[in-house]
């Protein structure tokens, strides 16, 4: 791609100075490539990317809107070299770099037209809705804390009375003082604010609300586990492999079957429906067993070893273990 005879310039006024964005249209009519200088400040980098992806500038510079830069450079010298060789026709850079590039462009006879001059506020006005935020204020709030907040986080925080950076930092301080969370993250802060709100209605602290909820969750989990063990006190592992390891349970049932009576339920499984018996794990096909059960498994493979192991589901104590070579059958009932 050759160097364009004329460059077109857009200007973004950042806090630290002017950032220039210009576009050079290829003489050959080829699609333009966009480039930028790498910025350490993520907020300014986002504004530059937003300027590049905007529909009006993209149309002006013959770019596809809504996309990022084709190439990013670490220093002005590399960026200028790319401009000279025609690798970049749309360029965005900060004010300090623009002050270096502008006289170099004039020296090389690379003329340019100004596209626009925009402030950060003007760029934000075109960015917040595209980024999924409900309002400009929500977007500004999202970028006023670190790390930035996504739209769902902003919505949740606002619903809990935190709508700006000051309120966010104040809530973090309250969370720290309460000893509520091990780390300072937005996820933990949202939990804290919800528990703080819940506790306020009953005179409890956020930490007390969380501890009571955790205790209730543990009790529900333990009750569910007890009920499961009462119904399924045993677990079987049907393995197929070598040297005591499982490779793939179906490999031992290519032309034989697995028969299981599990309480009042009955199933006959072959390679096509073996997964219905239970999920495959590293130890083999896992089948939760009731108090009364019977298993018959026949190995069809001439190399791999079929294994059946029965464990106590609560203690994981091995109650039965047997292996079988080709066409040998394992039977176990209780």
Structural notes for this entry:
The protein is an alpha+beta fold. Helices cover 35% and strands 26% of the residues. The protein is built from ten helices and 15 strands. The chain has helices spanning 42-53, 55-60, 76-84, 95-107, 120-125, 136-142, 151-159, 165-178, 186-200, 206-231, and strands at 6-14, 17-24, 34-37, 71-73, 90-93, 111-118, 234-241, 258-262, 265-269, 280-281, 284-289, 293-298, 305-312, 318-324, 329-333. Helix 9 (186-200) packs across helix 10. The chain is elongated, with a radius of gyration of 33 Å. The N and C termini lie far apart (79 Å).
Largest sheet at a glance? 6 strands, mixed
Mean pLDDT: 88
β-strand amount:
25-35%
* Sequence stretches where pLDDT stays below 50 over 5 or more residues: 1-5, 25-29
The counted number of beta strands is: 15
